[in-house]
Amino acid sequence: MNPAALLNLSEMYGDRLQTRVPLASYTSARIGGLADALLFIRSADELVEAATRLWQMDVPFILMGGGSNVLVSDRGVRGVVLLNRARSVNVNIQSEPPTIHAESGSTLNDIAQRAARHGLTGLEWAASIPGSLGGAVYGNAGAFGGEMAGGLASFEILHRARGRETWPVEKMEYGYRTSILKREKQPVLILSAVLKLAHGSMESIQAIMTRNSEQRRKTQPPGASMGSMFKNPPNDKAGRLIEAAGLKGTRIGSAMISPIHANFFINTDQTRAADMRALLEMAQKTVYEKFGVTLEPEIEFVGEW
């Protein structure tokens, strides 16, 4: 990163800007090299201001939320990481349908728990998911038969050329774990979203959330991981294919395919990103050779590779 630009940013943001930050501390897999700089974002307005300034300065940056579903390289990230902690959440039970407006750094689990406390149904699937709302909207996150496409009404973005815009859900052209933003890599940041819900019984909502959380604990392994490594291919499961290929428990360095669920790759002890990626590629190659199926990563690769 240009030293003059870094000095300029340090003068602007003071203690909010940290330099040479190990990103492993901010990812769910606990993997990742150094970022040149990291800036804490506390509101959607702060995100707009920082991104606009960085675009104007022509300083490269990425936005990170909960740090799940990403593999950050050992070489780290050049430029600035905007760490999204914009987490304002407002519940409107008077509207029809009732809605929740949340900033993009809010966690899915927090939003789901707030909905449950107000007797609002539609987000039970999101309970115990640690990822951020922005990432979920971007990638159409889902679980237990639910997904963002089913509950999203609209969302606000910041476009590099056009500024702030509000998009209806239809404009995302959602597919399984994908969206037009994810496919086209547009110069856009997600600022906030409006979720549409329905009135329900607090007892039944909580019962579903408890059942889903228990199922997640039984079937998904503990430890540092990125979440699901691969998308499920049509009419099959990535975990089933990896297990059938005999890869459960396989290691490269300290990266391990979980013996509990084969679509989870675990960081067992200060794993290198290169080893985790090599394990991913081994699984892809083996599954293709045995079954003729190409597994598509659900995660994204971040940083210098």
In short:
This protein is of the alpha+beta class. The protein has helices spanning about 5-15, 45-55, 110-115, 135-140, 150, 180-185, 200-220, 240-245, 275-290; strands spanning about 15-20, 35-40, 60-65, 70, 75-85, 90, 100-105, 120, 140-145, 145, 150-160, 165-170, 190-195, 200, 225, 250, 255, 265, 300. The protein folds into three domains: about 5-85, Uridine Diphospho-n-acetylenolpyruvylglucosamine Reductase, domain 2 (2-Layer Sandwich); about 90-220, Uridine Diphospho-n-acetylenolpyruvylglucosamine Reductase, domain 3 (2-Layer Sandwich), CATH 3.30.465; about 220-300, UDP-N-acetylenolpyruvoylglucosamine reductase, C-terminal domain (Uridine Diphospho-n-acetylenolpyruvylglucosamine Reductase, domain 1), CATH 3.90.78.
Structure write-up:
With 305 residues, this protein is of the alpha+beta class. The chain folds into three domains: 3-84, Uridine Diphospho-n-acetylenolpyruvylglucosamine Reductase, domain 2 (2-Layer Sandwich), CATH 3.30.43; 89-218, Uridine Diphospho-n-acetylenolpyruvylglucosamine Reductase, domain 3; 222-302, Uridine Diphospho-n-acetylenolpyruvylglucosamine Reductase, domain 1, CATH 3.90.78. It has nine helices and 19 strands. The chain has helices at 3-13, 44-57, 108-117, 133-139, 148-151, 180-184, 202-219, 238-244, 273-291; strands at residues 17-22, 34-41, 61-64, 70-72, 77-84, 89-92, 99-103, 120-121, 142-143, 146-147, 152-159, 163-168, 188-196, 198-199, 224-225, 251-252, 255-257, 265-267, 300-302. The strands form six sheets. A five-stranded antiparallel beta sheet has the order 6-7-13-11-12. The chain has a four-stranded mixed beta sheet with strand order 1-2-5-3, covered by helices on one side. The model has no long low-confidence stretch (mean pLDDT 95).
